[in-house]
Write a structure and sequence with these properties.
Elements lengths: L7 E7 L4 E8 L3 E9 L5 H5 L7 E5 L3 E2 L28 E3 L2 E2 L12 H8 L2 E4 L3 H11 L2 E7 L6 H10 L8 H5 L5 E3 L5 E6 L4 H9 L3 E6 L4 H5 L5 E4 L10 H12 L4 E4 L1 H9 L4 E17 L5 E12 L9 E7 L5 E6 L4 E4 L14 H10 L5 H7 L3
Parallel strand pairs: 3-4, 4-6, 5-7, 6-8, 11-12, 11-13, 13-14, 14-19
Antiparallel strand pairs: 1-2, 1-9, 2-8, 3-9, 10-12, 15-16, 15-17, 17-18, 18-19
């Protein structure tokens, strides 16, 4: 008899000893990674292909995942990029869901989420109490875990041994794993933007292209000299996975860019690298901000925005006092830094994702602000000095 999706036993073991028993789907394999959660209700193809999730097992708090299936990776937009994905492959190490839909219903669906994951070697576990798991992660903090899917599962003792012998998430240079090894150019405009790809989402490229720029997608360790060979009007430092303290090469390049007054935009990890390059410090959040309903407040205009976010590290606001960076946005829930403005250089950054995908497009104006800087208009620092905080 043909095996149905979700018919395998599967287990999730956390480093504190917590054990969750469920049903396996996707690839029959075992993975060790940091266990995190997202509060997003839609957009699992985009989330699962977001390079910022490299090295992490993603828990979906929404109870049903896979109900609209998975579209074709060969469905390209006018720019030649996969229309419904944020990279060319799954980047999460595994996923955790309450219910995996085995019979999706959508006109654009080409396969189930389990078929997709099997094809890329990614395991999943369903039929566990994701509410209890997320409560534990919120109270204790994110932690390493081992997800094992298969008919022949290892013993709990063996899984714990595997978990203890594995390298911790914060010690691995994931940016090096997801960044391209050579530059690639998109678009044909003479107005070029260099995108330092630390694990970029494709929608960042889309947003730059639709604003009339050609985009040079460059490796994370591209030097200042390499960047200037393209004669860019601005530089974007992308999102990406892992601890920003491990990105020394990109930090050094970022410092040189800002000092030379190159218009610069940092997004997510890019914000953290901007901050470190100017002398600020970063820290790891207890359980991070991951989802599509995260409220931020613009300290310049006083407006609030609902944003898409995916990060586990943040900038220490107190460390900004020794820099020329000032807060632009703060998180309405925990008051953590969500955006920065350089008071004397054409440099801005945001911790959230202005390109969304998935999520609300409320913050797309950030790309317009960057375009203003690239066109030599008033710097954001000047805006701060002329507007009421």
């Amino acid at each position: 008899m043909e095996k149905t999706e979700g018919s395998n036993p599967a287990v999730l073991l956390l480093e504190d000893g917590s054990l969750f028993l469920g049903k396996g789907f996707g690839a029959e394999t075992t993975t060790v990674a940091e266990v995190v959660f997202t509060t997003g209700m839609v957009g699992y193809p985009e989330s699962m292909t977001d390079p910022s999730y490299a090295g992490q097992v993603l828990t979906f708090t929404y109870p049903l995942i896979g109900n609209y299936g998975v579209p074709s990776m060969q469905d390209l937009d006018l720019m030649g990029l996969p229309r419904q994905f944020e990279s060319e492959s799954i980047k999460v190490s595994g996923i955790i869901v309450q219910e995996n839909c085995e019979r999706p219903n959508h006109w654009d669906s080409k396969r189930t989420i389990s078929e997709w994951m099997r094809g890329e070697g990614i395991p999943g576990i369903s039929d566990i109490d994701t509410r209890a798991l997320v409560t534990k992660l919120r109270e204790t903090g994110v932690m390493m875990g081992v997800l094992a899917n298969g008919v022949e599962l290892s013993s709990r003792r063996d899984l714990m041994r595997l978990l203890r012998q594995s390298t911790k998430y914060g010690s691995i240079d994931f940016v090096r794993k997801v960044s391209p090894t050579k530059a690639q150019t998109y678009g044909e405009s003479d107005r070029r933007v260099v995108l330092l790809d630390c694990g970029t989402k494709l929608s960042i490229i889309r947003n730059l292209l639709t604003r009339g720029y050609s985009v040079v997608r460059a490796p994370f360790d591209y030097s200042y000299a390499d960047i200037m060979k393209h004669d860019p009007v601005g530089v974007v430092i992308s999102n990406g996975p892992g601890d920003p303290q491990l990105c020394g090469d990109t930090v050094a390049t970022t410092a040189r860019l800002i000092q030379s007054e190159m218009p610069t935009l940092g997004i997510c990890l890019g914000e953290q690298l901007v901050a470190i390059s100017q002398g600020a410090v970063t820290y790891k959040l207890k359980y991070g901000h991951r989802g599509q309903n995260k409220p931020v407040v613009d300290l310049v205009s006083g407006r609030g925005y609902v944003t898409s976010e995916n990060h586990g590290y943040s900038v220490d606001g107190q460390s900004l006092s020794k820099t020329e960076l000032r807060p632009w946005f703060v998180n309405a829930d925990d008051r953590s830094i969500e955006g920065l403005i350089h008071t004397n250089k054409p440099c801005i950054s945001v911790q959230f994702h202005p390109e969304a995908s998935p999520g609300p497009y409320d913050a797309g104006f950030v790309f317009d602000r960057f375009a203003s800087l690239a066109e030599g208009q008033k710097t954001e620092g000047e805006r701060v000095r002329t507007m009421r905080m």
